[in-house]
Here is the input.
Amino acid sequence: MESLSKCDSNFCALTPISFLRRASASYADRTSVIYERTRFTWRNTFQRCSRLASSLRSLNVSKNDVVSVIAPNVPALYEMHFAVPMAGAVLNTINTRLDVKNIAVILRHSEAKVLFVDYQYIPQAKDALRLLVAESTAYDIYRNINMHHVTHMCCAPIVFRIILEAESADRRRVGSPVNVLTGGAPPPAPLLEKMEALGFHITHAYGLTEATGPALVCEWQHKWNSLPSDQQAKLKARQGIGILTLADVDVKNLETMESVPHDGRTAGE
Here is the structure.
């Protein structure tokens, strides 16, 4: 069997395309995306992604070509995560918070064949890729949570400060608990404690955007519920353990390449 070459009868690439196709066929009229007052169904999303993939092919984008994008979290960026693989290309999403030099390095290294830029970044992209970062406001966050009855959200720890430092006029009562998956930087325990008090239940994860999504997650243990809130916050700030689909994870001493002790203090990579 090992000598068989890959073909359609014995191999299927791991991509998000099959997920979208199944959702469109099985749940065509169910809501797939909510953005402000715009809603799309899974049928809409599949059709829009298919059209975008066709447009990319018309630009001579083919297998393994890189398509880069500079955009905030808008429906078009979401759709590119399906449409670009549909065209056989590689999606390179660029962090809008990076400085000009880092963005230039990424574009050069990726050898992007096509660059998509959200309208708000067009002038800056033309002017040496100097980006104007569009931050979500506390009012927007609270309003969307209440308008759409949000139960789960993902964000970087910087968003916690936006929520906590909101003016009283911008705050809204969170009617039911909101489960938050965060990563990007270890959130300080006091910050987690304050967020929990507002009704946001935090799960800390660690990933590597350039290679994969979440790789580690702080799996909460039921026995920790009886601990004082400050101790719970310290536990939630930890990197956690490997996710179910990860084969293995380890932290090594960079000089010896030996595994470091699991003591929560010894540094490594």
About this structure: Residues 42-58 form the longest helix (17 residues). The chain is about 35% helix and 20% strand.
